[in-house]
Design goal:
Blueprint (H helix, E strand, L loop, with lengths): L1 H12 L5 H54 L22 H6 L7 E5 L3 E6 L7 E8 L8 E9 L7 E9 L5 E5 L14 E11 L14 E9 L3
Antiparallel strand pairs: 1-2, 2-3, 3-4, 4-5, 6-7, 7-8
Length: 230
């Protein structure tokens, strides 16, 4: 009889997991893996969201820097920098006429509105160009909109080729003009009075912020101004 007890004890020691124990272990392991996987997925989503926000901010800053740099060249080189005898048009004619008829002279602002600016200037050292910056709305008429930029040499003329510079802009009114004394420029009072142009960009992230409980699209706001030679 003692031998039988030892045999049973030895059998119990070497016995494997029961089916119930195995099922419970698998269930626990599955739960742990699910929690870990969900956590990793959330971290990745938050990281991607943060990267998108930084990318939108950098893209907006680059565009802002570019258009401010372009506008600083508005009206350069000006009529005052040339010997009147070297100009093609009659020097005794009105300055606007002389400027318009000389491809080497930049006339400064050509047109201005809250959503579009056109000016002349040597923006890259290749000669005087006609520069166009405009907000383009979708067919619905409401933003998000696109800001396009186009240039064409003054000596060539015609319609420039436009390139998309910034997407997901949430306002069509991005430009503001100011007189020499800092007061707001009034439309119709003459482009020559404009000495400063303000630029305001509201750019929406194309993807929602996963860190928020509700669907929220982060917005990058940038405001700057530039003095122009006009």
């Amino acid at each position: 009889m003692p031998g039988n007890k030892e045999t049973k004890r030895s059998a119990n020691v070497h016995r494997g997991f029961s089916m119930l124990e195995l099922i419970v272990a698998i269930a626990i392991l599955t739960t742990v893996i699910g929690v870990v996987t969900t956590g990793i997925s959330q971290v990745e989503q938050r990281s991607a969201s943060d990267v998108n926000k930084v990318g939108v901010a950098q893209e907006s800053r680059q565009f802002m820097d570019q258009i401010l740099r372009d506008m600083r060249q508005a009206g350069y080189p000006s009529l005052a920098m040339f010997d009147p005898t070297t100009l093609v048009a009659n020097p005794s004619a009105p300055p606007a006429y002389v400027c318009t008829n000389n491809n080497n002279v930049a006339c400064g602002l050509v047109s201005f509105s809250s959503s579009a600016v056109q000016f002349e200037g040597d923006i890259d050292g290749s000669g005087v160009s006609e520069v166009y910056i405009q907000v383009v709305a979708p067919t619905s008429g409401t933003c998000p909109c696109t800001v396009q930029r186009g240039t064409v040499l003054k000596s060539v003329g015609g319609t420039p080729a436009y390139y998309t510079e910034l997407d997901n802009v949430m306002s069509q009114n991005i430009f503001t003009a100011y007189n020499y004394d800092g007061t707001a420029w009034v439309s119709g009072s003459g482009l020559s009075l404009i000495k400063n142009i303000g630029v305001t960009l509201y750019v929406r992230n194309p993807t929602p912020d996963v860190n928020q409980s509700t669907v929220t699209y982060p917005t990058t706001t940038m405001v700057s101004s530039v003095r122009i030679n006009n």
